[in-house]
Amino acid sequence: MATFTRPRTLKETITHYCPGCGHGIVHRLLAEVIDELGIREKTIGTAPVGCAVMMYDYIDCDMIECAHGRAPAAATGLKRVHPDKIVFTYQGDGDLAAIGTAETIHTANRGENITVIFINNVIYGMTGGQMAPTTMLGQRTTTTPEGRGMHGEGGPIHVCELLRSLEGVCYLERTAVSSPSDVLATRRAIRKAFECQIAGKGFSLVEVLSMCPTDWKLSPDKAVKFVNHEMKTVFPVGVYKDK
Amino acid sequence: MSKNNVDIHFDAHRCKGCGLCVIFCPCGNIRMSDALNEQGHPYAELIDADRCTGCGLCFRMCPDTAIEIRSNKTAKR
User: CATH class for domain B6-70?
Assistant: First the structure.
């Protein structure tokens, strides 16, 4: 009997996300993995600042809300005080790669035994579509109306490539949620990242290329094509580190 | 249960009408409604229950967990 039903860890609450947003898919995958591994009662998550700020209303495990970008630092404290718990952070590109760059890099470098789910939608979603650190060259946003330029704004930050060289990092993978096969790959990656933490191997991060139809000003079907045809050429999916 | 032993349920109340299920249904068996739900969105609905194979691609792509499927087939997760 094959069943496709809402995982236990995902609450029934209807999310506040826009139609076609990738957050809902990643929330479900995260909940499925937590259920599968049977770790709901010992998992502590951190909600980000960004569109997923009210994530604790949707995921049925212990959650805390962190100051913008400081989730890896807060998660470090949580994990060190509760080494038997499973600690994850869920962060967007503004949270992880802009205001939280220092926390992200140093937490990774220290090899803190936590899991980071990084949602990369190449734009600031909640604040209305401004340029993010991961915005692609030439991409128009409200703060780069002529398109992001190499001379002025600089190029997009590739988080997986940036963190790959750090000794404390155990597992890095970039995936997407823009097709059923990508969704399955994301689910496998999240599971692998949690398994790394359970095995005590160190810092694990899954970067998920996600859709933001509203701020890209695209319909959901065109947003999916944007991820598959444009984002994946700038941010190639795959495993960047697995030790 | 349909002819293919698939029990598929679309929750019109949860659906936000993004249409990702419509795009990825390999049978072209899902459409958007003309009516709107309480949230003000059109909602996905099955065209022909007997044509649904229960593959689960719509479930995997749905950001709002508005689709639930039970079938007698085995599927890779």
Answer: alpha beta
Within an 8 Å CB–CB cutoff, is residue A51 touching chain B? no
Of A5, A184, A220, the CB nearest to B68: A5
Tally of residues, chain A:
243
List the domain boundaries for chain A: 23-242
Phi (first) and psi of residue A4, to 5 degrees? -125, 95
At A178-207, the pLDDT tens digits run 999 999 999 999 999 999 999 999 999 999
Q: Is A145 exposed, middle or buried (0-12, 13-18, 19+ CB in 10 A)?
A: exposed
Report CB contact under 8 Å: B19, A183.
no
> Among residues A147, A198, A208, A149, which one has the least CA distance to residue A170?
A198
Residue A224 touches chain B, beta carbons under 8 Å:
yes
CATH architecture assigned to A23-242? 3-Layer(aba) Sandwich (3.40)
Q: Which residues of B touch A21 (CB under 8 A)?
A: 18, 63
Q: Identify the three-state secondary structure at position B34.
A: strand
Maximum distance among all alpha carbons in chain B? Answer: 36
Q: How far apart are CA B63 and CA B77, in angstroms?
A: 17
Best residue in A1, A3, A4 for a mutation probing chain B (most B CBs within 10 Å) = A4
Position of tokens 């191997």?
A201
**Beta-strand relationship, A169-176 and A203-209:** parallel
pLDDT of residue A18: 97
| ipTM entry | 0.93
Residue B66 to residue B68: CA distance in whole angstroms: 7
Interface size, chain A vs chain B, as Cβ–Cβ contacts under 8 Å? 85
